[in-house]
Fold:
Amino acid sequence: MTYNCENAFDTIPTLHHDDQDFLPDGPQHWTRWRFSLKMNRIAQVLLAADTLHPLDMAVLQEVESDTVMQWLVGRTPLASVGYEYVMTESRDRRGINVALVCQPLTFRPISVQTIGLSEAFLKGHNLTSTRDILHVCGRCAAGDTLDVYAVHLPSRLGGREGGVKRRELQRLLFANIDSLLTVRPSARIIVAGDFNEAPSKREIRRNPRLRNLMYGRRGGSYKFHGRLEWIDQVWVSASLTDGSSRLSVSDADVRALQLPFLLERDEAWGGVKPFRTFYGPAYHGGYSDHLPVVVTFRGR
Structure:
């Protein structure tokens, strides 16, 4: 599963993080009670994604710290599953990070790498830092090696600066994958996360060795001005779709999780929309402004 958790901050001020809004005395009034409720709701989403078996792994975006992740996997109903996690320690101004939550019995990390914008690039373009991409190579229960990239590209609200950073991170991501496929042509690769833009034909053509499972699909995971779109995406390598691997995935194995508790009526545009935690500074008490995207990989 990939899930943008919408501002999963802890309640502790962190040096070098612009997290003042999400403190008990900040404008968002981010109290311990609200934080605890948020953690339990993220846990509820992970457990509800598959009622028969716990998820093998989840890529989470907008998680601030180890405090958040330790609480999530150790002090919510997820504790009974025994999840472990790895996460980035990005230089993002707000302290936003990405994390991979996984079951050690079904996916055991072997190596961890981060991919980020260089200081030279940031200074050369007069840009601020942003979150890194997380690359985890691990071993599945069946013995196959799997490379997972956890992504949260800069927002479109960042205007020109956000666009420059987003394009450069995309370039770095796909260059890293190209290098991996040069060394291991049959590598099994999953790229999952919030790309902050809809799938485009241009990107599909530029990356022929990967397949975006969201491209051409109806619906979406995020609603903007009344329109659902797939800014939360999952890309896979050809080895996971052509039958050459013991793991495989098809179009029928992909869905946005639209459980009733994740949705509310959309009074402005009609229909329903994700039940979010905040509207600007106003606490709304929901889950997230994104829907989770769940992909089932089948083994043989």
